[in-house]
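Entry for the shared binder. Reason: the reviewer on the internal report wants the predicted structure included alongside the sequence.
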Amino acid sequence: MEELKVFSGTAHPSLAGNVCNYLGIPLGGAELFEFSNQNIFVRILENVRQRDVFVIQPICCPVNKSLVELLIMLDALKRASAERITAVVPYYGYGRTDKKDQPRVPITARLIADLITTAGADRLLTVDLHAPQIQGFFTIPVDELTARSILGQYFREKALNNLVVVATDIGISKVARDLAAKLGASLAIIEKRRVGNMDATETLNVIGDVEGMCALTVDDEIDTAGSLVGVVDTLLKRGVTEVYSCCTHPILSGQAIERIAASPVKEVVVTDTVPVNGAKKLDKITVLSMASLIGEAIHRIHTGSSVGAMFE
């Protein structure tokens, strides 16, 4: 592994450190800081010429700083003559703007793909994109990992009785169906619609039998937790005995923590694709590590092995 180098931006250094621990290599040295005028400075502190380089940086809060920092790191590595640069983006920010669903709006997810490619990335490694078509926005190879095997294993070991897996909207119903099959559970779907461009949703209906059952809601991310709280309340009104929830990306912005703390949801299980620290640490929030999964994917990419075989 002498040719392998892993670097981290400031968005999630603890995840990068854990990935390097899995790989048995030190984290690459880099100097990053922000000038008083908010311009970002990056300097790579070691030789990367002809090396296989990976940059771990989720596009998470502060989103725009994390994004620009990633782009500048990619450019610095390209100009330092790295042989191959892989952008490891566990959380792909702006992923929800993946299509034109209104007049005169951008497809920002495509714009971010163009920026990452232009900055110097030769490939992308990411986790559970909001929409699968985002892979097609790139002209470079994309490896999409999924945390659902880790989440599924957690609840398999928990062995909840009389379980129904609930998709929080129709768009994630296939994911929920696959998880339900792995857990030997039945499936239900929440039908809802989004109100305007703000983070507000109106729950419309529960499709499927949930009365008297233990529910596990599934989503790709929890942002303000408004949808989660609405789904939990709706399920309890429909006769569910208790509700658990899981997602890959715990964005937890705005009043999310207050809403989860006040909600009757029993446990919210998430991964560390973005940092969960400080006030975001609640007793009912369980964080599962992605370090071994990402580390194994990096090892396989570096050695030319199959990444897809990890999930077969």
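Summary line for the report: Residues 4-146+291-311 form a domain with the Rossmann fold fold (CATH 3.40.50.2020).
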